[in-house]
Amino acid sequence: MRALASLARALAVGLGLTWLSRLARRLPGSGAWWVALAVLVVVNLLPVVAVLRGSVAVGDVLLLYWLENVVVWAVTIVRIGTARGAGEPAKLSVTVNGRAQRTSVLGAWGLAAFFAFHYGLFTLVHGVFTALLAWSSGVPGDLSPVLWLVAAIAASHLVSLVLVWFARGERRVVSPTEAMGAPYPRMLALHAAILGGFFLFLRDGPASGPVGGVAILCLVKLAIDVSFHLRQRRRTPLPQRGDGLYGPAAV
């Protein structure tokens, strides 16, 4: 365990996470939350720029947003396992041969394991469907622009996780059950918008895609992300200085 903890600290320093944590402690009020929102907006504008420059196509955008869903899956597992807010314990009932078995109460990491399977299975099935749509619309052989965009999006989720969830203490006011339920509405809204947009005005486009349509799709995705970010801010106020949750006790 000590070796694992030492490795985690070394990784945090190498990725600059320690610096981000210190920054969050120095930001006034909800400054960390606004920094995370600004990073979210900037990173989500990168695909729009890439589309307008012709660096990515319709299929690239579909793959990009599916890969982001994988990032959300991984980040949410960490959130569920480290959430410490008050709330009803999550219960899992299993039916075998038509009979309900005894309901078990899941701990935080047990709930995270259940989420990993449930959300992961849905993501896998959706990924197969997304891949078929992406290749049918045309995916260039060079996927390096998509990988760079995925890295940027993953970094934005990591910034939010460190600044808001850990350093700013959001995990102290969110229960594991609430953390598990958070990504599902966003996932459904996002997938409906992306797939709906594809079938409405992108499916018959050339491999490079109608630039305007793809750019609009990216902007719709940005609007969905921002709206859910604002919704989470309203539903879960962050701890403030003096309430026993902010600062060293919140990490």
Describe this structure in words.
- This protein has one domain.
- It has helices at residues 2-14, 17-26, 31-53, 58-82, 108-137, 144-167, 176-181, 183-201, 211-235; strands at residues 90-92, 95-96, 99-100, 104-106.
- With 251 residues, it is mostly helical.
- 29% of the residues are buried.
- Helix 2 packs across helix 6 (144-167) and helix 3 (31-53) runs antiparallel to helix 6.
- The chain has a two-stranded antiparallel sheet with strand order 1-4.
- The chain crosses the membrane at residues 32-52, 109-134, 146-166, 187-203, 209-228.
- It holds the Pfam family DUF6498.
- Keywords: Membrane, Transmembrane, Transmembrane helix.
Rounded to the nearest angstrom, the radius of gyration is: 20 Å
Output the strand order for the largest sheet. 1-4
- Quaternary structure annotation: single chain
Secondary-structure element order, as H and E?
HHHHEEEEHHHHH
Low-pLDDT runs of 5+ residues are 1-16, 100-104, 241-251
Distance between the termini: 19 Å
Structural domains: how many: 1
> Percentage of helical residues?
55-70%
Can you give the mean pLDDT?
Answer: 74
Number of strands: 4
The secondary-structure class comes to mainly alpha
InterPro entries: DUF6498 (IPR045466)
Transmembrane segments: 32-52, 109-134, 146-166, 187-203, 209-228
Pfam families: DUF6498 (PF20108)
Keywords: Membrane, Transmembrane, Transmembrane helix
Any key phrases for this structure?
single chain; 251 residues; mainly alpha; two-stranded antiparallel ribbon; 70% helix; globular; disordered C terminus
